[in-house]
């Protein structure tokens, strides 16, 4: 990726983090860590990769995104607002009664969301179904699905991975957000779901390991994924939960945490 | 009299016809394609047929994704595994997400026969009943099934079909037309109303005959849709007969009996006796023997009717 494009993505990434943390600070609490670990990937997907039409959100030929770890909804809302799916002012309604922006992704409520998620482990199956349906319809649309590392402790994820490999879904990219943490502890300490690369390769995936906060690596991975035929691709992102703000980055307590006015002030200073 | 065609054959044949007209119809299976009569469909439409292996949760999720892309998926398994095995997936990925997936549970209740208690769905309709927007349909015979399926295809939301696999007792003639959400009046009567579903409908008709010889006039209704329940039919039965009996191949808890009791309590309180499986698990046995053991045959229904009539004020 050239310097100009890289600089643009870095600027967009700062804007996304700013919108995100303002949204969370306005409410004072929320799922911070798992949103910040995927927000760079979302910036890349929405600005470099996915074909979507904000003015025609149900466009049939669009690419699909399923955030199977549905609690990262707020990171997605920041991107959808930036892309113009809805007004940025709406971000301040997050999790308030009657909002279109609930904690967990809801395709019935939010413009631009392709699948409801929140009960962990389910979104990937839906993404597999989408990839099959789009292939049946002879569309060249692609399906992207973000799965949390902790989420992958759910058995249904492995049912879906097995079937994706079995169906040779080369229009599906599974993105693993390997931030190494879950609510109660480090993932390795509770139920060792790693190594993702060997496991997914054994399930029939083309596996690409990347730093999930490095746009050049993401660019190479998603470019390569398009060249893979007859099997799905897994982009295994090594990420940092809570990435970008020192009040939360890498802290085990950041899954769902309070955000004070001081936290917001320090966060905005770090973005400047 | 038993029908000459198996229910599953009637289902599979009708699905083949409907799929010819509607290219969105897709079948998903979890390794039980023959059990629900869809082998011929899968042979005829291989590009629209998917067998995910023994993975019901994934099957429902895949179907939800297909529905989100405009397809019309029908997922199949035994009634136990197509409901409780993947209940959270049906709840969140289908119902909460507002996606149009049809769910087929074969061999309900005593239909599981020699597969026994692990496979005997006695609570399937009950747990489906709790889900907002879910429709529950239990066809009484192949004529009703064939008449209802096109309407189920056209219905823009999830439907759970309790599909008895074998030959059913013939209840309806060729001119029958299924009316969505409506109970079918099979036998007029004025002293007690028997509201039955599935294999218990023939038992209810036999019970009406037994009661007739005792001078009790029994109305018999086939309630093939447990949800939405035909409130009008329940209320008029209460007002015109003054006593009711429900009969079902399902637990009396959260089944047809519960649905009728709720309508009565809120609209037209009247004595009600519930015939069904009384809060216990299933076991192995032939369907007929199980029905007698569970107390859901004609004599049990007649006894319940006498009791209900005796309770009239």
Name the features.
heterodimer; A: about 270 residues; alpha/beta; Rossmann fold; 5-stranded parallel beta sheet; two-stranded antiparallel sheet; 10 helices; about 10% strand; globular; B: about 325 residues; 2 domains; 7-stranded mixed beta sheet; 5-stranded mixed beta sheet; 11 helices; about 40% helix
At a glance:
The complex is a heterodimer of chains A (272) and B (313). Chain A is α/β, with parallel strands linked by helices and 272 residues long. Chain A is 41% helix and 12% strand.
Series of secondary-structure elements of chain A, N-terminal to C-terminal: HEHHEHHEHEHHEHEEH
How is the largest sheet of chain A built, in terms of strand order?
2-3-4-6-5
Task: Quickly give the CATH architecture of chain A.
Answer: 3-Layer(aba) Sandwich
Count of runs of 4 or more consecutive helical residues of chain A: 10
Shape of chain A: globular
Q: Please give the largest β-sheet of chain A.
A: 5 strands, parallel
Give the number of domains of chain B: 2
| C-alpha Rg of chain B (nearest Å) | 19 Å
What would you say this structure looks like, in words?
The complex is a heterodimer of chains A (272) and B (313). Chain A has 272 residues and is an alpha/beta fold. Chain A has a single domain (3-271), classed as Thiamin diphosphate (ThDP)-binding fold, Pyr/PP domains (Rossmann fold). Chain A has ten helices and seven strands. The radius of gyration of chain A is 17 Å and the shape is globular. The two termini of chain A are 24 Å apart. The mean pLDDT of chain A is 98. Chain B is an alpha/beta fold. Chain B has two domains: 2-169, Thiamin diphosphate (ThDP)-binding fold, Pyr/PP domains (Rossmann fold, 3-Layer(aba) Sandwich); 184-310, Rossmann fold, CATH 3.40.50. Chain B is 39% helix and 21% strand. Chain B contains eleven helices and 14 strands. Chain B starts with a strand and ends with a helix. The mean pLDDT of chain B is 98. The chains are: A alpha/beta (272), B alpha/beta (313). At the A-B interface, helix 5 and helix 6 of A face helix 3 and helix 4 of B.
């Amino acid at each position: 990726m050239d310097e100009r494009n890289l600089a643009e993505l870095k600027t967009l990434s700062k804007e996304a983090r700013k919108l995100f943390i303002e949204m969370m600070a306005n409410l004072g609490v929320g799922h911070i860590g798992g949103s910040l670990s995927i927000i760079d990937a979302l910036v890349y997907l929405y600005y470099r990769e996915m074909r979507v039409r904000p003015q025609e959100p149900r466009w049939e030929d669009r690419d699909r995104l399923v955030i199977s770890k549905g609690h990262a909804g707020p990171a997605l809302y920041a991107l959808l607002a930036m892309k113009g799916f809805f007004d940025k002012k709406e971000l301040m309604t997050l999790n308030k009664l009657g909002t279109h922006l609930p904690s967990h992704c809801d395709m019935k409520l939010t413009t631009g969301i392709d699948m409801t998620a929140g009960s962990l482990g389910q979104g990937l199956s839906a993404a597999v179904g989408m990839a099959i349906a789009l292939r049946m319809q002879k569309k060249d649309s692609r399906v992207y699905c973000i799965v949390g590392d902790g989420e992958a402790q759910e058995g249904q994820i492995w049912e879906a991975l097995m079937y994706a490999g079995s169906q040779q879904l080369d229009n599906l990219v599974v993105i693993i957000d390997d931030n190494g943490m879950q609510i109660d502890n480090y993932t390795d300490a509770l139920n060792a779901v790693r190594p993702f690369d060997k496991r997914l390769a054994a399930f029939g995936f083309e596996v690409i390991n990347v730093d999930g906060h490095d746009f050049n690596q993401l660019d190479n991975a998603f470019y390569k994924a398009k060249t893979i035929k007859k099997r799905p691709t897994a982009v295994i992102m090594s990420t940092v939960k809570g990435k970008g703000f020192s009040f939360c980055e890498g802290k085990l307590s950041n899954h769902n945490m309070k955000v004070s006015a001081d936290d917001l002030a320090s966060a905005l200073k770090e973005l400047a | 009299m038993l029908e000459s065609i198996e229910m599953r054959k009637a289902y599979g044949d009708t699905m083949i016809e409907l799929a010819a007209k509607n290219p969105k119809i897709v079948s998903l299976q979890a390794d039980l394609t023959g059990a629900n009569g869809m082998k011929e469909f899968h042979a005829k439409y291989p590009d629209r047929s998917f067998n995910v292996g023994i993975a019901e949760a994934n099957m429902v999720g895949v179907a939800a994704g297909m529905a989100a892309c405009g397809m019309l998926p029908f997922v199949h398994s035994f009634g136990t595994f197509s409901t409780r095995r993947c209940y959270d997936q049906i709840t969140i990925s289908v119902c909460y997400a507002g996606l149009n997936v049809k769910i087929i549970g074969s061999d309900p209740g005593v239909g599981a026969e020699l597969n026994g208690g692990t496979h005997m769905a006695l609570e399937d309709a009950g747990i489906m009943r709790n889900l907002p927007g879910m429709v529950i349909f239990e066809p009484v015979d192949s004529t009703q099934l064939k008449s209802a399926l096109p309407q189920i295809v056209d219905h823009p939301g999830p439907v759970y079909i309790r599909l008895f696999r074998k030959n059913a007792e013939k209840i309806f003639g060729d001119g029958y037309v299924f009316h969505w959400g409506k109970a079918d009046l099979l036998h007029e009567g004025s002293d007690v109303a028997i509201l039955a579903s599935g294999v218990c409908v023939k038992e209810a008709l036999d019970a009406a005959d037994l009661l007739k010889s005792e001078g009790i006039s029994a109305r018999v209704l086939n309630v093939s849709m447990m949800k939405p329940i035909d409130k009008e039919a329940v209320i008029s039965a209460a007002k015109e007969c003054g006593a009711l009996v429900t009969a079902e191949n399902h637990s009396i808890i959260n089944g047809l009996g519960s649905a009728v009791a709720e309508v009565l309590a809120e609209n037209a309180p009247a004595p009600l006796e519930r015939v069904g499986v009384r809060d216990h698990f299933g076991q192995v046995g032939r369907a007929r023997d199980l029905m007698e053991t569970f107390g859901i045959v004609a004599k049990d229904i007649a006894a319940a009717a006498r009791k209900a009539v005796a309770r009239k004020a």
